[in-house]
Amino acid sequence: MTTWYRLYRQTLNSTQCSLFSPITINNWTFGLDSVKLAPMKIDVTHTGKILVLHGPNLNLLGTREPETYGRTTLAEINDNLTDLAHNDGIKLTHFQSNGESELIERIQRAIGENVQFIIINPAAYTHTSIALRDALAATGIPFIEVHLSNIFARESFRQKSYFSDLARGVICGLGAKGYELALEYALAALSGGSSQNSENTGVTAK
Ligand SMILES: O=C1C[C@@](O)(C(=O)O)C[C@@H](O)[C@@H]1O
């Protein structure tokens, strides 16, 4: 999909405004100036919004049980996702909390912010929180459930999720890569490129 950006060029006595098709290389956008071809770094026009939510103890990623959750820190995960989304002109915000009520309030705010997709690792709340599940259901915003570890290969109490039946999809056991894959799907869905049709994907969309 070609995204068009509005470029403003300050002149001596006026601000000229034209539409140009940009080329983006390494987060720099090059546009055609109305007089000459000149590189201009501009703010990318964000055409969509994705919210990434992390539940309790995920702030400790990197040092927390690395044999189970890997050595990638939460900051590294968030930075990577932010860059990937930004390259597609999508604004990505992330939020981590150890508290159920804070996560619920963050989800409720997403409605007013026009968030179009949520990626969530509810962490231990996966197995306990009807309240978080209800908050996601109340927004009606499609979401993907992500777990770093393969919860189905772990203790039996981790094999129950209060989210999976509402989720567009579930990714678990692939470590930090799982977030990237979830984002890839969300970006495709926002650009209309991801089929929501079970006939085409083999996946039943909610
Ligand atoms: O905190 C977590 C992390 C987790 O969601 C995961 O990403 O693998 C799995 C949960 O069972 C656990 O409580």
User: How much β-strand is present in the residues?
Assistant: 15-25%
Total helical elements: 6
Class of secondary structure makeup: alpha/beta
What sort of overall outline do the alpha carbons produce when their principal axes are compared?
globular
Report the average pLDDT across residues: 82
Radius of gyration: 20 Å
Low-confidence regions: 1-21, 195-206
Helix content: 25-40%
Topology as a string of helices (H) and strands (E): EEEEEEHHEHEHEEHH
Report strand order across the widest sheet: 7-6-8-9-10
Number of strands: 10
Instruction: Give the count of structural domains.
Output: 2
CATH hierarchy class name of the largest domain: Alpha Beta
The CATH architecture assignment of the largest domain turns out to be 3-Layer(aba) Sandwich
Function: Catalyzes a trans-dehydration via an enolate intermediate.
Protein name: 3-dehydroquinate dehydratase
Family: Belongs to the type-II 3-dehydroquinase family.
Catalytic activity: 3-dehydroquinate = 3-dehydroshikimate + H2O
